[in-house]
Amino acid sequence: MNDALIISNIVLWIAVLALLLVVLALSRQIGILYERIAPMGALMMDSGPKVGEAAPRFELATLGGSTVTLGGAKPKSTLVFFLSPTCPVCKKLLPILKSVRKAEAQTLDIVLASDGDRPEHDEFRQRAGLADFPYVLSSELGLKYQISKLPYAVLLDSAGRISAKGLINSREQLDSLFAARDLGVASVQDYLDHGHTHAHPEHA
């Protein structure tokens, strides 16, 4: 009887140790998998003005009746967010933009940009509660940056240079623009692909 109890305890401990080894192995594999599929950040399209270049200068009328200047030196950075009233992802990101605008009010201005018929945008601006954002309509602006997909964002630094840009589908991708600026790289995607070797021209 005692021998059977001892043997069963030994078998149980062997099973527990084997299970522990399996858990450790799985944890390691999960870590490797996470590194491989880590968020790549905003997808930067290889078109339009490049990161590190001076942003093209635009002086545009807003739907609210004021004027906004994009490009050139400013006290704050500027995030130009290209959107459309018919873009579902754009609408999903609006609460995030409002949150970022509030949190970064001391250092960041956010400008909404689109094109098309003004009545549609006036209605969308009112319905979505965007009266506090400068909202401009300019096909020239979209053409200059060669915007082909939405939502898309361009981050300009206070000197008027393009710090980062890319296709935005989530809060993480939006945050990746600020991370790319802080790291001094063209994009988080570029940083993950090539490490620390690619920096903005002004940081080289």
UniProtKB/TrEMBL annotation:
The chain crosses the membrane at residues 6-26. InterPro entries: AhpC/TSA, MeN_DH_accessory, Thioredoxin-like_sf, Thioredoxin_domain, Thioredoxin_ResA/DsbE_sf. Residues 49-182 form the Thioredoxin domain. Pathway: One-carbon metabolism; methylamine degradation. May be specifically involved in the processing, transport, and/or maturation of the MADH beta-subunit. PANTHER family: THIOL:DISULFIDE INTERCHANGE PROTEIN DSBE, THIOREDOXIN-LIKE PROTEIN HI_1115. This is Methylamine utilization protein MauD. It comes from Roseateles agri.
